[in-house]
């Protein structure tokens, strides 16, 4: 297969203040293949994609498009050169219709005015070409995230993309939606589109990808045919060491299948609910207990947790903390009771991007003290350095701006922020989503350790294996209702949880 | 060095000052006359003091992601109240009278700032609208206070605030410097600065982290109004008169500009007090330059606009990158006949 690569880069270098993100990386992409870009968080995947799409300008190296040297100076040039990108967070306009989103910026015109009938006709064509059944006049906001994702792809393909970059398109999709996405990807591959696919789900990589390029620490580790590399070898190459962490985890985390006995509930919610968010539910969490929340995306997991933190106010039910009835009016009251909440939306609800790692870490503690009682600079430095070391946050520079960190490292900063407040109940909403295997294992181990030391943990995750591995008790949500709470005493399996989710029956 | 936050504001200021030397060779000369410092540099500091104060308050407001358009009106109201009190007093030259007048002005500023803060933080009105109310209404209030007249006063102690000297230095400069230092101390040696930046940088995350954002936001509007009131005292004191119509007119725009030139983003978040002071001095230097090089009065605004646009462009990292990119690629190729664009276009078709 000595075809001409549609896109080829040699010796790409990119440096950010304090971080060498890409160090002489080579990469090539052939027409009609699905190519996985693999690597841990901070390996340089996102940076490479941003260089290819013109978001960042590289500091060195060459780019060849269909064999000819080219400079990609901005997203527009990238698009004109046939490189289209669909990001993890869909970046379309939710207030516009599907048709407008597909053709925005390239509307067909007649007499200088937008030719709306033609817009709808062409959009319908683009959607039909992907075998989607969709009313293109509907506002995008009314579509599910998965459909929005597919609309973004329809738009990208309609621009006549030769290269389609999909940056973690599946992280918020359920199983059927992933299947739908893969069907579209296969169709595009047959048409000769080169697809660059980034995902943290190894099974998906092996299902759809033909070849893969592995990055490690900003350098090229190698390029492989998917069929010639086992999952184990892949993981070993990504983290550059044999896997011991994950193997050991299942034992260490599950050491206490029985919930810690004795102590009464730290927090007990009775009939707690909020109209339009989650129906009234009961839940109790004891010190040292890990309670998992499982359910499909949008089933009300996050909404249930937000009530326990006062992020949204409940309009029904009561909460008792240490046996005493309290009203969690806002996050500040909840924090006062020793409750901490790591949101699933790290960027929008968690971190302050333009503050440093140190400032983000001490923020919750400082907020609790109020502005008149500042933490001394040396105390801040010490806390930051200690937690950067403890959680292996990279780069290990407390003065780095948080927005320059990779997703997994941002998650660790968020964890550190709450851990230094020494919470009694830690609510983790999808703490491992979109982060690599190494960091995932570290976070799981940390949760098990904290619970072992007596912290109550509410653990929300879409990955059932993870919930099962860590939780003493699993609450299952379906259609904004808590349908069951199952003890994880050895007999619980992910099949059983899935069945409960599917049937909605009390387990 | 160019990466330091204050590099570009400082460079712009230096360039403007040097440009003046070309027209006025003794521009940097400072001499002592009658026990007072004299010179163009002193004038810039002296006349720039009110703007520095207003911009100081504006910086904190902008750091929270807000904006305060009402400062010009607050300047007018504060000056009008102080002058009215002094002019109606039996003892206009008495220290007590002047202190009461200043106290009165500051007290009213507290009220005005609280109204802004209440509207923005509690009622949730957008800052630009909330403060627009007082910007428009406040002018009217100032006119009511002065009864549409210009109130002139003769009071030694009052004249000191904006027009007097203290140990050869203009008192206004001393006052402004003290306020800047105090604010720097208040924001950076407590956690106030960091929490303000957090609230401006990401309000949702700040709420979830337990920051009492409403209080902080209300606080910065009060602070901004107090700064404006002190500036109002300075301005009216300097001319020994209160003009409800023209005092502090458009100063809010200069203050916003000073903040932006100083490197604080209008979107909120990171702020720089040092940058704001430099920004205010840039604007005042520009005003002085316009007089010293004799720009015709009818074109001063155009001249100012052109310089401000140039200053903003020079400070934009994107623009500088574009400029140096063009220069580099031009030098490499020698001629511009072959650019990178054709390759892109061919592939794109």
TrEMBL record, chain A:
Residues 7-242, 253-504 form the ABC transporter domain. One of its GO terms (cellular component) is plasma membrane. It comes from the Bacteria. Gene3D superfamilies: P-loop containing nucleotide triphosphate hydrolases. It is a peripheral membrane protein. One of its GO terms (molecular function) is ATP binding. It is found in: Cell membrane. Its main location: membrane. Keywords: ATP-binding, Cell membrane, Membrane, Nucleotide-binding, Repeat, Translocase, Transport. SUPFAM superfamilies: P-loop containing nucleoside triphosphate hydrolases. This is Sugar ABC transporter ATP-binding protein. It comes from Kitasatospora indigofera.
UniProtKB/TrEMBL annotation, chain B:
It is found in: Cell membrane. It is a multi-pass membrane protein. CDD domains: TM_PBP1_transp_AraH_like. The keyword Transmembrane helix applies. Keywords: Cell membrane, Membrane, Transmembrane, Transmembrane helix. The keyword Transmembrane applies. It comes from the Bacteria. One of its GO terms (cellular component) is plasma membrane. Pfam families: BPD_transp_2 (PF02653). The chain crosses the membrane at residues 37-62, 69-87, 93-115, 127-145, 165-186, 216-235, 247-266, 273-295, 301-319. Residues 325-334 have a biased composition (Basic residues). InterPro entries: ABC_transp_permease (IPR001851). Residues 325-349 are annotated as: Disordered. GO terms for molecular function: transmembrane transporter activity. This is Sugar ABC transporter permease. It comes from Kitasatospora indigofera.
